[in-house]
C-alpha cells in the first residue's frame, strides 16, 4: 500500500516537526518547509494528499498561499493551522472552501495530537468505497480551465460526452433515502473526467448553459423514472421501508436559465411523458444567482412553484442577500452551504451558523438540507438540531446511475440499524414521552370503553409493546400474529371475533391466555412516511366496530404519531415536565374533536398562582420562590387528576387541566383531592410556605362546536371573578362555574 503524503508549510519549525511526528506515526510520508516558494515546488512535483498550512507567516500569509492554491486548482486536502482566534480560522476555512479548495479542517494552535490525527486519519479516502470515488485524487493533477475550449464543449454535447452522477440525500433522523442530487460530469476525450466547476462557467459565458441543463434534464429524468418504477431497483414493491414513489431528484439550475421559458416548458412535457409528478423535482439555485434578474426570475420561479415543482436555495449562508432571497422568492427548501458543515466539528461558530439557518428555515416553514457531511459527528450534530435532510461523502459520494442500486441494497441493513437505534432513542430513554403515550392509551380506553390499548412498534425482526394500558403486556409473546397482519394492511385491521376468524382461531393468543377475541390495529407512520408500528385495541370479548369507531381510532393514531415525532423540548415545560403551551394547543383541539364524536364532556380548569398576602400576625408564613411554587403545584396537579387528563403549564404562573369524559362528579372529586393535597403540602412544609391560586372552570358541551380558545376564554373570565383559594379552604365546582 502506498503511504499517504502530507506537505507542511509552517514558519515555526517546532510546530512543523510536531505535526510531522504525529503524521508519520499514522503512516504518512511527510515533507515540511518554511518557505512558500519551496512549498509550491514540492506541491507540483510530489502531489501530496494533504497539506497543512500556517495562516500567519512572515513574508507571505496563509490566505495568499490559499489564493495561489485555488488558482492552481489544488485538489489536496487542506488543513489550516494557526495561533489566531477561532473566528479568523473559520473565516479562512470558509473563504478557502468558497474558492473551491478542499478543506479538511482547521486546527487552532496549540493542538493535541488527537485532534490532528482525527483530521488526517478520519478523512483517509480508503475509508470510502473506492468504486464510488468520483473526484480525482491528487495523483492526477486537475486540468486547467484554459485548456478547455468552447468548441470542444459544443462537440461534447453533440457526442454525448456529458453524463450525470447522483449523490444520495437522506432523512437525518431515520437515515432513510430521501432522493438524489444530479451532478453533471464531462468525459473529456483527452483530459478524462472533468468536474462541473471546470466547464459550467464556460457554458454560461458562451450561451451553451441551456443546452447543458437540457441534457441534464433528459439524462436524469430518464434514469429517475426508471429507477423509481421498482423494476430496476431490486426492491420488492411491498417493501414499505423504501417507498420509491416519494424520492426526489434535485437539479442545479444556472441563473441564466431562469429567463428561458422554453427550457422549462420542455421539462414539464418531459415530466408528463415520464409520469414524474412535479413535486418530486427540486431545482437548486445558488442564492446570488436568483438575484441576477430579480423580476424575470421571480416570475418564472413563481410559475414553476405553482405547477408544483420545488425550489431550493443552494449554498445558503455564503451570499450577501440570503435573508432577502429567502423572503422574496418562493423557496421550499434551504441548503446549508458545505463550508459550514465541513467545519462544524471544530468550529463553534460554524455550528451556530448552521443552527440559526435551520431554525430560521423552520420558522418560515421551509425544509432544510445540509451538504458536505463528511463525518458521523456532523451527521449526529445535524440530527440534534433538527435538520431535515443530509448529503455528503460520509453518506455517499456522487455515483454513476449503474452504481445506485448496489449502494441502496448495501445501505438497507445500515438503515435498519439506525432505525432501531432511533426507536430506542425515542421510546426507551425518554421517560416523559412514555408518560405521554400512557396518557393516550388511557384516553383510548375511555373513548372505546375497552380493557386494553397498546402501542406496538415494529421493525423487520422485532416488536416492542410500548405503553400498554390494560392487560399486562409483559405476558404477550413477541410474535404477536395480529400485529403482523395489521402492519402490512393498508387500512385499519379489524377482527371482531377472533374465534371465528380462520386466520386467528387456532392462535395460542386466542385459545390460551390472554384469550383475545377482539382486535383493531391502526398503522402508525413516522414523519418520513415509514410505517413504524400500530395502535391496537384488544378485548377478551367479541365486539362490533363501526365506521365511526374506525375514524376515531384513526384520529387517535394521528395523535400518537405526533408524540412519536415531537421532540420533548418543544412540547414540554422543562421545569415541571408538564406540557407547555404549544404542546397543549396542538393536542387539545384533536382531543376535543374526538370527544365530540363520542360524545364525551370535557372540563377545562384554569389555575392562576397567586402570592399569599403578607400577614403580620403570622410571620412564619411566606411565599415560596415563584419557581419552586410552580414545580410543587405541578406535582400536586399531576397527583390529583387522572392519567388520561391533559395538564399543562401555559405560562410561569398559569396552569390548565383538561379533564376528559368528566362529569360534575369527577370534577368535584378531582378538586377535593387537590384541596386535600394542598393542605397536606402546607402542613408538611417546615417553612410554612403556602401555595394559593385562583381557579376558573369551563365545561364543554359536546353538542356545540366549542373550540379550545372558546373554552379558555370562558375559564379566564371565571378565573378573574373567582376568589383566591388558600390551603385548607374547600374548593367547590359551583363557585367557579
Ligand atoms: P453544488 O450544487 O454545491 O454541489 C455539491 C458539490 O459538493 C458537488 O460537487 C459534490 O460532489 C460536492 N460534495 C458533495 N458532498 C460533499 C462532501 O461531503 N464534501 C465535499 N468537500 N464536497 C462534497 P461537484 O459535483 O463538483 O459540483 C460542483 C458544482 O457544480 C455544484 O455545486 C453545482 O453548483 C455545479 N453543478 C453541478 N452539476 C450542475 C448542473 O447540472 N448544472 C449546473 N448549472 N451546475 C451544476
Ligand atoms: Ca447543488
Ligand atoms: Ca451547494
Helix-strand layout with pairing:
Elements: E1 4-9, H1 13-25, E2 28-33, H2 36-46, E3 50-54, H3 62-71, E4 77-82, H4 86-98, E5 102-108, H5 113-121, H6 150-158, E6 162-171, E7 177-188, E8 192-194, H7 200-205, H8 209-228, E9 248-252, H9 261-274, E10 281-286, H10 294-307, E11 310-316, H11 322-328, E12 333-336, H12 338-342, H13 348-363, E13 367-371, H14 376-384, E14 389-391, E15 399-400, H15 401-428, H16 431-448, E16 452-458, E17 463-469, H17 481-487, E18 493-495, H18 508-511, E19 518-525, E20 531-539, H19 547-565, H20 568-571, H21 581-597, E21 602-610, H22 626-640, E22 646-651, E23 654-660, H23 664-684, E24 692-699, H24 708-721, H25 733-736
Helix pairs in contact: 8-9, 16-19, 19-21, 22-23
This protein binds ligand C2E and calcium ion (2 copies).
Average pLDDT number: 80
The level of helicity is 40-55%
Outline: globular
Strand order of the largest sheet: 6-7-9-10-11-12-13-14
Main sheet: strands, sense, barrel: 8 strands, mixed, barrel
Number of helices: 25
Number of strands: 24
Low-confidence stretches: 125-140, 232-241, 416-431, 472-478
Oligomeric form of this entry?
single chain
Task: Report how far the terminal alpha carbons are from each other.
Answer: 83 Å
Provide the list of bound ligands, each named once: ligand C2E, calcium ion
Structural class: alpha/beta
> Which range does the strand content fall in?
15-25%
Radius of gyration computed on alpha carbons:
32 Å
Amino acid at each position: 500500500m502506498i503511504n499517504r503524503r502530507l506537505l507542511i508549510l509552517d514558519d515555526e519549525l517546532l510546530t512543523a516537526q510536531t505535526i510531522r511526528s504525529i503524521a508519520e506515526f499514522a503512516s504518512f510520508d511527510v515533507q515540511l518547509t518554511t518557505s512558500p516558494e519551496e512549498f509550491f515546488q514540492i506541491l507540483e512535483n510530489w502531489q501530496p494528499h494533504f497539506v497543512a498550512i500556517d495562516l500567519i507567516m512572515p513574508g507571505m500569509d496563509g490566505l495568499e498561499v490559499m489564493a495561489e492554491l485555488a488558482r492552481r486548482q489544488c485538489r489536496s486536502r487542506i488543513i489550516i493551522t494557526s495561533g489566531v482566534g477561532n473566528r479568523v480560522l473559520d473565516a479562512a476555512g470558509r473563504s478557502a472552501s468558497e474558492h473551491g479548495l478542499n478543506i479538511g479542517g482547521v486546527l487552532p494552535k496549540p493542538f493535541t495530537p488527537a485532534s490532528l490525527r482525527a483530521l488526517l486519519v478520519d478523512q483517509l479516502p480508503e475509508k470510502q468505497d473506492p468504486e464510488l470515488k468520483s473526484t480525482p485524487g491528487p495523483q492526477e493533477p486537475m486540468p486547467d480551465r484554459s485548456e478547455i475550449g468552447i468548441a470542444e464543449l459544443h462537440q461534447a454535447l453533440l457526442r454525448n460526452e456529458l453524463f450525470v452522477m447522483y449523490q444520495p440525500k437522506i432523512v437525518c433522523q431515520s437515515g432513510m433515502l430521501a432522493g438524489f442530487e444530479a451532478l453533471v460530469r464531462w468525459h473529456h476525450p483527452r483530459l478524462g473526467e472533468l468536474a462541473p466547476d471546470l466547464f459550467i462557467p464556460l457554458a454560461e459565458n458562451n450561451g451553451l448553459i441551456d443546452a447543458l441543463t437540457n441534457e441534464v434534464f433528459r439524462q436524469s429524468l430518464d434514469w429517475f423514472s426508471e429507477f423509481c418504477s421498482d423494476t430496476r431497483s431490486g426492491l420488492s414493491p411491498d417493501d414499505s421501508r423504501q417507498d420509491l414513489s416519494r424520492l426526489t431528484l434535485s437539479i442545479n439550475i444556472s441563473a441564466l436559465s431562469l429567463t428561458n421559458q422554453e427550457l422549462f416548458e420542455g421539462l414539464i412535457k418531459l415530466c408528463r411523458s415520464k409520469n414524474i409528478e412535479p413535486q418530486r423535482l427540486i431545482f437548486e439555485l445558488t442564492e446570488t444567482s436568483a438575484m441576477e434578474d430579480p423580476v424575470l426570475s421571480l416570475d418564472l420561479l413563481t410559475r414553476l412553484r405553482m405547477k408544483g415543482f420545488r425550489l431550493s436555495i443552494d449554498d445558503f449562508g455564503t451570499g450577501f442577500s440570503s435573508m432577502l432571497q429567502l423572503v422574496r422568492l418562493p423557496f421550499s427548501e434551504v441548503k446549508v452551504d458545505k463550508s459550514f458543515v465541513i467545519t462544524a466539528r471544530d468550529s463553534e461558530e460554524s455550528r451556530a451558523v448552521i443552527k440559526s439557518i435551520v431554525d430560521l428555515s423552520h420558522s418560515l416553514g421551509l425544509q432544510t438540507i445540509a451538504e458536505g457531511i463528511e463525518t458521523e459527528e456532523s451527521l449526529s450534530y445535524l440530527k440534534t438540531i433538527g435538520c431535515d435532510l443530509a448529503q455528503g461523502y460520509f453518506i455517499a459520494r456522487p455515483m454513476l446511475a449503474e452504481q445506485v442500486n448496489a449502494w441502496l441494497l448495501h445501505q438497507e441493513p445500515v438503515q435498519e440499524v439506525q432505525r432501531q437505534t432511533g426507536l430506542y432513542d425515542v421510546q426507551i430513554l425518554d421517560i416523559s414521552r412514555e408518560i405521554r403515550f400512557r396518557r393516550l392509551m388511557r384516553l383510548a380506553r375511555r373513548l372505546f370503553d375497552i380493557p386494553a390499548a397498546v402501542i406496538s412498534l415494529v421493525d423487520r425482526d422485532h416488536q416492542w409493546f410500548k405503553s400498554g394500558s390494560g392487560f399486562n403486556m409483559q405476558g404477550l409473546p413477541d410474535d404477536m400474529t395480529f400485529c403482523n397482519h395489521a402492519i402490512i394492511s393498508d387500512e385499519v385491521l379489524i377482527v371482531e371475533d377472533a374465534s371465528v376468524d380462520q386466520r386467528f382461531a387456532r392462535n395460542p393468543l386466542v385459545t390460551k391466555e390472554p384469550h383475545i377475541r377482539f382486535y383493531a390495529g391502526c398503522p402508525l407512520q413516522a414523519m418520513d412516511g415509514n410505517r413504524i408500528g400500530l395502535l391496537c385495541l384488544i378485548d377478551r370479548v367479541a365486539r362490533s366496530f363501526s365506521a365511526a369507531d374506525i375514524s376515531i381510532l384513526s384520529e387517535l393514531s394521528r395523535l400518537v404519531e405526533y408524540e412519536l415525532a415531537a421532540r420533548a423540548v418543544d412540547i414540554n415545560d422543562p421545569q415541571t415536565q408538564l406540557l407547555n403551551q404549544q404542546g397543549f394547543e396542538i393536542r387539545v383541539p384533536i382531543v376535543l374533536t374526538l370527544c365530540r364524536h363520542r360524545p364525551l364532556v370535557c372540563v377545562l380548569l384554569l389555575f392562576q398562582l397567586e402570592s399569599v398576602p403578607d400577614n403580620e400576625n403570622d410571620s412564619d408564613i411566606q411565599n415560596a420562590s415563584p419557581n419552586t411554587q410552580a414545580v410543587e403545584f405541578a406535582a400536586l396537579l399531576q397527583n390529583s387528576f387522572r392519567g388520561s387528563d391533559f395538564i399543562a403549564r401555559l405560562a410561569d404562573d398559569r396552569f390548565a387541566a383538561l379533564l376528559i369524559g368528566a362529569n360534575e362528579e369527577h370534577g368535584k372529586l378531582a378538586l377535593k383531592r387537590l384541596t386535600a393535597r394542598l393542605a397536606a403540602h402546607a402542613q408538611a412544609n417546615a417553612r410554612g410556605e403556602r401555595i394559593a391560586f385562583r381557579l376558573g372552570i369551563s365545561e364543554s358541551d359536546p353538542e356545540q362546536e366549542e373550540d379550545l380558545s372558546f373554552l379558555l376564554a370562558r375559564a379566564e373570565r371565571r378565573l378573574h371573578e373567582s376568589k383566591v383559594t388558600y390551603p385548607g379552604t374547600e374548593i367547590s365546582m359551583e363557585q367557579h362555574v
